[in-house]
From TrEMBL, chain A:
Protein name, per record: Vacuolar protein sorting-associated protein 16 homolog
Record localization: Late endosome membrane; Lysosome membrane
Organism from which the protein derives: Lipotes vexillifer
Domain of life, source organism: Eukaryota
Residue ranges that the Swiss-Prot or TrEMBL entry lists as coiled coil: 349-376
Topology class, membrane: Peripheral membrane protein
TrEMBL record, chain B:
Record-given protein name: Vacuolar protein sorting-associated protein 33B isoform X2
Pfam families: Sec1 (PF00995)
Matches recorded under Gene3D superfamilies: 1.25.40.850, 3.40.50.1910, 3.40.50.2060, Syntaxin Binding Protein 1, Chain A, domain 2
Membrane topology of this protein: Peripheral membrane protein
A GO biological-process term: protein transport
Source organism phylogeny: Eukaryota, Metazoa, Chordata, Craniata, Vertebrata
Length: 839, 590
């Protein structure tokens, strides 16, 4: 371990930089990198190469080849480039490959070389051709910036939501700028370009000349510029071999360096880590790599091969034909622990643990030393942290062992950090594996988040690994396993060589009833791939009908959608389908469909009753539902029609419908009503007053009350009012008028069909005992007692009851005996009862 | 006199939680979301408000939407701009949004939902307060509320644990149950770990038993409902009851100590009980005499308030009783009851028919007459054609031709039908059964099915022994069975079914009854193997009445519970009675 710091290179007094190998590349490249158009995605993303980029003089047979590799050089895709000449390649934040063609068309490919879509950067670009293009990342997504042949810039800050912006003209720009870059400040994308000794900043409104503060004199041209990963810093390389480093706002200079190399560097990128004070820039020439920062010396490396730099959040990746390396500033924790002769608590703890393993008592000494200073918690923390930054599992383990050893001597040291680090490292080691080839550092991983990492694994179709990670980290199913299975299923439905049945079965077998898996999403994907039948099969597995229906509608399986909606019992859903059907089908077909779905029909009827009365009528018509049609018109006769003629006409239609429905009764009743309406109209004309809308009964009553006895009789005859009711009617009306004389005459007109008890009752209701008594005497024997009781003649009632020898009647009278006055009567009944019992 | 519960009767769950939940949500909606400061009742006239924002709290009905649309459009015409918010309770229907859209105001209003579906009216009574359910479902075949019922059940099961045993009868019951199950499955296992608090659930469609709901009620609570109309668990006692010149709104629930003791009593007992109570009260007041100062202080501070409260309640209920007596004797209540009993028992049908005819002749009450006709029809499997025609004619001539539609409604709902010759019926039946085999059609309540339904009341009554054999006088003070709620003449069919199923824990052996009820495929049992259910929870039974239940049924089941050591919890779409049932079916001129 003595040589552990062998690859550490100091830059100034305070920082070390180290470079280590990630992978030895196995990609068997035939060309030199310099002959290819190269694009590597950040966060350990894939590498795209375009061999033989647009050499126009070459014959068509030697078309360029676009190849995509993982960061470890595992081939992912290879395709013959058949489109136009390509200017630039780049990866979007979603790991989609953006290929900028000379004509301004951007083609978007997936990780596996699958064509996704294309878009154009506008007419202006098309006319003037693309001179240069950059793909850059902002907080909204990925942007494309283009320099056209007319030396104008066009950019879109987010290709997901394409809005082209043409940047203002740079005054007096005759040739292409010597170098340019995109910057992102305050959520706005800018372009910084260098023309000779001048720098210009372009935003969407204006072009302004800028000067970096403290720039050394004598600069006649800028050869290279670099913006840091987070857009905070800017570095400029001048033709004098001078490097200026400052803030991206160009307000402050951080440091400068003179490397005395005048040759233009191939690449220049920032190499810094978040929250570190150190600033350094990596400059690459053909065979030389230089790390410069705020120090008089620089670190120099020799490049054996043609190499390519990829800026990362916390360092720089450097890959060539044979290797893939990572260059970064040594993190503080690692530095503390491993710096030669470090007495930091972490360093001591690591030492203690090693001694402990050797069973040496030195372990105790070291431990004591830390404990005396009370620094054991920091020591453990340092070891955990440092482990995170180590690339090699052996080193990670040894640091974690030290941490775990130190933890034993601490009371109540929260274990979360330790456990989480172990888990994170396990995940990181798994994805760094050669076969997977995602060389994420711990900081990058934290920045990226596990969700995004899982998405990327899914994107690489590494479903089993993604699921294992979810299970290992115990992520909730909905966020984790289910989501991945759903992605897998969506991938599965795109395999067009497998039959619908097999795909559906395979998916169901794997997914089963996993919570959170939406079969309808998968079905939607299948439909998107043009596999309607498969989509329907998959929908069968969807337990929520609510999810099935919208897709079925989209697939124009409206009738199936309707029955699914009905099955779901959700009326809202049924209604949605209904309205859809209504617009989709012609009226006849729509009605026919409804006819077979009574539930939908009644729902629609309800709606029509309030909103579309005419449609309701049509519905009944088409069903030959004459009964309902009749009812419909009856309702219309009093709800919709105002004029009497209209009302009669509505009733006539109703009557016809009722005849058709073989409902003679209703038809007759309706005709009667027509007759009544006409008659009432006549009565109103002749007698004045209000008759319309009265019932037959009330019409007759009104007539009697207004003394029109003859007309009343006539009406009663016309409408065949039964005698009984007519008597009740007259009796009530006359009593209401208190026309006792007429009442008596009426009572004597013939024998009452309702007896005379009602007369007694009604008179008593009007509190006319005198009249009541008259009729009481005429009441038949069966009801005599009741009548007598009604008029309050208890004594006589008792006599009659006794005479009838009727037990029930006697009890009835008894129950009416109240107070002292009836005492004698009560006795009389009791005696009679006793007598009756004796017999 | 009030029957005490058996000592081992299970405790009722605390339903006040439902109230709190609903209240908090509403307050949140009104205050936080919409900043409402004043409430108006939605009536068919424009509200007097000059405020910048109108917020409507409405049932999701098309009629209400049109009202709102008219209002908004009127504002628009007047060039007035306001904000409009519509809060739908218990949920929003797509049809409503459609109407708003068709009326061109969808963009002007913002919608919200207040998921308030269960109002605890009492410790054991939850009401969804959806009186429209009955007409919507049983007449119009509109199933939109079934989802609401399922949601309500789901809410209960999330709050009070899963339901291990479910039984049900009726198409709506079956559909609600299925929908509820689906909801439970979708929301994976929130309730899985919970111990069930409610051991049994029984769902019952109102159309399984129309008879009980059509009878005059004679239990005190039912009578109060029939006479004064209980609304949302409270009643307006008019001046004739309060013996002052003011009306008084009184909450009727278990909190009211006096009411709690008489609510389930046959009316004939109530007066006696109240006078006894009055005497006791007097005696307690009288204790004052001969108290020393300390005792007196104690009395005033502790007992007096309670006594006064009791006194107030007592005088109210005595007033109510008097008022009921007056009304009921005026219309010859005894005669009416006698006729009803005759119909239930199936004798002297001719006399009963004549009685109904006379009832119309005398123009007593349109609703009452209609009710008696329905009762006659259901108990007799329809009216004989001659009576059917003549009664209808009498009725139409008396109360107006629009009732032609009422009769059509009643026929469709199977409440008032004509006895048809056998062959037509079977043809109908086969047509219906064909419909039922079709899976989708099986889920519908189509008008046809009720047309063909024979009520079979007589046969059912015999099978289930609904008419108790009377040996001597039925002692209403010490009831023997649930028949006491109808003076000992009839055991409510719905309650008998529930009793029988609970006894068997299934529908086994009731096949014939189920067939007679026309529910052959609509009676179900759903038991989950749940050994976590305590014996206590297994005696707690939630009865769900779809389409409403009457206070008589509630009293009958409370009685059954006391007998068997169960506790019943009632969930109903609304508390109903014969009048409400008939009004729901009646066609009225707007």
């Amino acid at each position: 371990m003595d040589c552990y710091t062998a690859n550490w290179n100091p830059l100034g007094d305070s920082a070390f930089y180290r470079k280590y190998e990630l992978y030895s590349m196995d990609w068997d490249l035939k060309e030199e990198l310099r002959d290819c158009l190269v694009a590597a995605a950040p966060y350990g993303g894939p590498i795209a190469l375009l061999r033989n980029p647009g050499r126009k003089e070459k014959p068509a047979s030697a078309r360029p080849v676009l190849e995509i590799y993982s960061a470890s050089g595992v081939p992912l895709a290879s395709l013959l480039w058949k489109s136009g000449p390509m200017v630039s390649l780049g990866w979007s934040a979603e790991e989609e490959l953006l290929c900028v063609q000379e004509d301004g068309v951007v083609l978007v490919y997936g990780l596996h070389g699958d064509f996704r879509r294309h878009f154009s950067m506008g007419n202006e670009v098309l006319q003037n051709r693309v001179l240069d293009a950059r793909i850059f990342h902002t907080e909204f997504g990925s942007g494309v910036a283009i320099l056209t042949g007319a030396h104008r810039f066009t950019l879109s800050a987010n290709v997901g939501d394409l809005k082209l912006r043409r940047m203002p003209e740079v005054p007096g720009l005759q040739s292409a700028p010597s170098c340019w870059t995109t910057m992102c400040q305050d959520r706005v994308a800018h372009i910084l370009l260098a023309v000779g000794p001048d720098l210009y900043l372009l935003d969407h409104a204006a072009c302004s000349a800028v000067t970096p503060p403290g720039l050394a004199p004598g600069v006649s041209s800028f050869l290279q510029m670099a913006v840091s990963f987070t857009y905070r810093h800017l570095a400029l390389f001048t033709d004098t071999g001078y490097i200026w480093m400052g803030t991206a706002s160009l307000k402050e200079k951080l440091c400068e360096f003179n490397c005395n190399i005048r040759a233009p560097p191939k690449q220049m990128v920032w190499c810094s880590r978040p929250r570190s004070k150190e600033r350094a820039v990596v400059v690459a020439w053909e065979r030389r790599l230089m790390v410069v920062g705020d120090a008089s010396e620089s670190i120099q490396f020799v490049l054996d091969e043609d190499s390519y730099l990829v800026p990362e959040l916390d360092g720089v990746r450097i890959f060539s034909r044979s290797t893939h390396e990572f260059l970064h500033e040594v993190p503080v924790a690692s530095e503390e622990i491993f710096k030669i002769a470090s007495m930091a608590p972490g360093a001591l703890l690591l030492e203690a643990q090693k001694e402990y393993e050797k069973e040496s008592q030195k372990a105790d000494e070291y431990l004591r030393e830390i404990q005396e200073l009370g620094q054991l918690p920091q020591a453990v923390q340092q070891c955990i942290e440092a482990a995170g930054h180590e690339h090699w599992p052996d080193m990670q383990k040894s640091l974690l062992r030290a941490a775990s050893f130190g933890k034993c001597f601490l009371d109540r040291f929260p274990p979360d950090n330790f456990v989480r680090m172990c888990q994170d490292l396990r995940v990181l080691n798994a994805i760094r594996d050669y076969h997977i080839g995602i060389p994420l550092t711990y900081s990058q991983y934290k920045q990226l988040t596990i969700q995004v990492l899982l998405d990327r694994l899914v994107l690489r179709r590494l479903y089993p690994l993604a699921i294992q990670i979810c299970e290992y980290l115990r992520l909730p199913e909905v966020q984790g396993v289910s989501r991945i299975l759903a992605h897998w299923a969506c991938y599965k439905v795109q395999q067009k060589d497998v039959s619908d049945e097999d795909v559906a079965r395979a998916i169901n077998q794997k997914l089963g009833d996993t919570p959170g898996v939406s079969y309808s999403d998968i079905a939607a994907r299948a439909y998107g791939c043009g596999r309607t039948e498969l989509s329907i099969k998959l929908l069968e597995y969807e337990p929520r009908s609510g999810e099935q229906v919208p897709l079925l509608l989209k697939m124009k399986r409206s009738k199936l959608a309707l029955s699914k909606a009905i099955e779901s019992g959700d009326t809202d859903l049924v209604f949605t389908v209904l309205l859809h059907l209504k617009n989709e089908l012609n009226r006849g077909d729509f009605f026919m469909t409804l006819r077979n779905q009574p539930m939908a029909l009644s729902l629609y009827r309800q709606f029509c009753k309030h909103q579309e009365l005419e449609t309701l009528k049509d519905l009944y018509n088409q069903d030959d539902n004459h009964q309902e049609l009749g009812s419909f018109h009856v309702r219309a006769s009093y709800a919709a029609e105002e004029r009497i003629e209209g009302r009669v006409a509505a009733l006539q239609t109703a009557a016809d419908a009722f005849y058709k429905a073989k409902n003679e009764f209703a038809a007759k009743a309706t005709e009667d009503q027509m007759r009544l309406l006409r008659l009432q109209r006549r009565l109103e004309d002749e007698l004045g007053g209000r008759f319309l809308d009265l019932s037959v009964h009330d019409t007759v009553t009104t007539l009697i009350l207004s003394g029109q006895n003859k007309r009343a009789e006539q009406l009663a005859r016309d409408f065949r009012i039964p005698d009984k009711r007519l008597w009740w009617l007259k009796l009530t009306a006359l009593a209401d008028m208190e026309d006792w004389e007429e009442l008596e005459k009426f009572s004597k007109s013939k024998k009452s069909p309702i007896g005379y008890l009602p007369f007694v009752e009604i008179c008593m209701k009007q509190h006319n005992k005198y009249e009541a008594k008259k009729y009481a005497s005429r009441v038949g024997p069966e009801q005599k007692v009741k009548a007598l009781l009604l008029v309050g003649d208890v004594a006589q009632a008792a006599d009659v009851a006794i005479e009838h020898r009727n037990e029930a009647e006697m009890s009835l009278v008894l129950s009416h005996c109240t107070g002292a006055t009836d005492g004698a009567t009560a006795d009389k009944i009791q005696r009679a009862r006793a007598q009756a019992q004796k017999k | 006199m009030a029957f005490p519960h058996r000592p081992d009767a299970p405790e009722l769950p605390d339903f006040s939680m439902l109230k709190r939940l609903a209240r908090d949500q509403l307050i949140y909606l009104l205050e936080q979301q919409h900043e409402v400061d004043k409430l108006y009742k939605v009536e068919n006239k424009p509200p007097f408000s000059s405020s910048e924002q109108l917020c409507f709290l409405v049932r999701p009905r098309i009629k209400n939407m049109r009202y709102i649309a008219n209002l908004v459009n009127a504002d628009k015409m007047a060039g007035r701009t306001r904000k409009y918010k519509v809060i739908f309770s218990p949920q929003k229907f797509y049809a409503c949004e459609m109407v708003l859209e068709e009326e061109g105001i969808y963009g002007d209003v913002s919608c919200d939902e207040w998921a308030f579906s269960l109002l605890p009216l009492d410790v054991d009574l939850l009401s969804m307060e959806l009186p429209e359910f009955f007409r919507d479902y049983f007449l119009e075949g509109d199933q939109c509320w079934i989802n609401t019922v399922a949601q309500a059940l789901h809410l209960l099961s999330t709050l009070y644990g899963p339901f291990p045993n479910c039984y049900g009868i009726g198409r709506c019951a079956k559909m609600s149950h299925e929908l509820w199950r689906k909801l439970e499955e979708e929301e994976d296992g929130e309730t899985k770990g919970r111990r069930p608090e409610i051991g049994h659930v029984f769902l019952l469609d109102r159309d399984v038993d129309f008879v009980t709901a059509l009878c005059s009620q004679v239990v005190y609570e039912g009578l109060v409902d029939d006479t004064f109309r209980v609304k949302c668990g409270s009643v307006d006692f008019g001046p004739e009851v309060t013996s002052s010149d003011k009306s008084l709104k009184v909450l009727l629930n278990a909190e009211d100590k006096v009411f709690n003791e008489i609510r389930n009593e046959h009316f004939s007992n109530v007066f006696g009980f109240l006078s006894q109570k009055a005497r006791n009260l007097q005696a307690q007041y009288d204790r004052r005499r001969g108290m020393d100062i300390k005792q007196m202080k104690n009395f005033v501070s502790q007992e007096l308030k309670g006594l006064k409260q009791e006194h107030r309640l007592l005088s109210l209920h005595i007033g109510a009783c008097e008022s009921i007596m007056k009304k009921k004797t005026k219309q010859d209540f005894q005669e009416l009851i006698k006729t009803e009993h005759a119909l239930l028992e199936g004798f002297s049908i001719r006399e009963s028919t004549n009685y109904i005819e006379e009832h119309i002749d005398r123009q007593v009450s349109p609703i009452e007459s209609l009710r008696l006709m329905c009762l006659l029809s259901i108990t007799e499997n329809g009216l004989i054609p001659k009576d059917y025609r003549s009664l209808k004619t009498q009725y139409l001539q008396s109360y107006g031709p629009e009732h032609l539609l009422t009769f059509s409604n009643l026929r469709r709902a199977g409440l008032l039908t004509e006895q048809a010759p056998g062959d037509t019926l079977t043809a109908m039946e086969s047509k219906v059964s064909k419909l039922v085999t079709d899976k989708a059609a099986g889920k519908i309540t189509d008008a046809f099915s009720s047309l063909a339904k024979r009520s079979n009341f007589r046969a059912i009554s015999k099978k289930l022994n609904l008419i108790p054999r009377v040996d001597g006088e039925y002692d209403l003070k010490v009831p023997r069975d649930m028949a006491y709620v109808f003076s000992g003449a009839y055991v409510p069919l719905s309650c008998r079914i529930i009793e029988q199923v609970l006894e068997r824990q299934s529908w086994q052996g009731l096949d014939e009854v189920v067939r007679l009820l026309n529910c052959s495929e609509l009676a179900f049992t759903d038991m989950t193997k749940e050994d976590k259910a305590s014996s206590e929870s297994l005696r707690l039974i939630l009865v769900v009445f779809l389409g409403g239940c009457t206070f008589s049924e509630i009293s009958a089941l409370r009685f059954l519970g006391r007998e068997k050591g169960y506790r019943f919890i009632f969930l109903t779409t609304a508390v109903t009675n014969s009048v409400r049932l008939m009004e729901a079916m009646s066609e009225v001129k707007a």
